[in-house]
Specification:
Length: about 240
């Protein structure tokens, strides 16, 4: 009995020491022990970057992120806390959920950008929102012909279906929009992310504006592509629609 108590005390000291070291060197700070000042043990008060001890940068080493995630997940695994009180176990589960949410938001470059924008300005930029995104001004003229074709497709759906020529036109426009969509994603992951990471405090507002404009274009393109898919009776084989219900 005494041996188990001594071992438990040693593990507790090692855990506290490791948490202090990680905090000092910018390591992960979502802990399952004593809370640091300004946050509690469940990670409340921390944003997703802070959970992993990261600055608000988009260039993240995803292998290192995964390593930290596994490390923190093991530390908070319920199997290691079976003897804890019900209140403590509930806190551990909440901390685990907080950690999982942070990892999901940061592991994908585009989800990371969307989260960063929401974090900086509180604006919901996610696709699949209840209200469909409006066309950015620079796309209005370009989309006019497509919107006309979609309206005709809806009318045709009520009177027997699209003609072959109309289907071919819509399919061609869809392919062109997909290419544009992929280019916009590459721009977000590449040039715009690099601009954010290298921006000084005075340039951050401009970098955020560029993100929001690009995300709006991406969301609108996604919506139109999905509308064309619906008008044509579904996505081509091998293509998965991003429409969210």
């Amino acid at each position: 009995m005494r041996s188990r108590a001594v071992d438990a005390a040693r593990r507790s000291r090692r855990s506290r020491g490791a948490n202090h070291t990680e905090r000092a060197r910018g390591g992960p700070v979502l802990i399952l022990g004593k809370a640091h000042e300004g946050e509690d043990m469940k990670g409340r008060g921390l944003d997703h970057f802070e959970v992993f001890g990261l600055p608000r940068r988009l260039g993240i080493d995803t292998a290192e992120l995964q390593r930290k995630f596994y490390e923190l997940s093991r530390r908070g695994h319920p199997d290691f806390h079976q003897g804890a009180s019900p209140e403590r176990q509930a806190e551990i589960l909440e901390a685990s959920a907080r950690l999982n949410a942070a990892y999901r938001a940061l592991r994908d470059p585009l989800a990371r950008i969307e989260y960063l924008v929401r974090l900086e300005e509180g604006r919901d930029t996610r696709e699949g929102a209840t209200v469909k995104p409006k066309a950015p001004p620079e796309l209005l003229e370009e989309m006019f012909e497509i919107q006309e074709a979609l309206q005709e497709a809806k009318s045709a759906g009520q009177t027997g279906g699209l003609e072959a020529g109309a289907k071919e036109t819509l399919a061609t426009q869809r392919d062109r929009l997909r290419e544009r969509y992929e280019q916009e994603e590459a721009r977000l992951r590449g040039r715009l992310s690099q601009a954010w990471d290298s921006a000084g405090p005075a340039d951050r507002a401009g970098a955020l504006t560029a993100f929001k404009e690009s995300l709006a274009v991406r969301a609108y393109l996604r919506t139109v592509i999905d509308d064309i898919d619906e008008a044509l009776g579904g996505s081509p084989e091998g293509y998965v629609s991003h429409r969210r219900h």
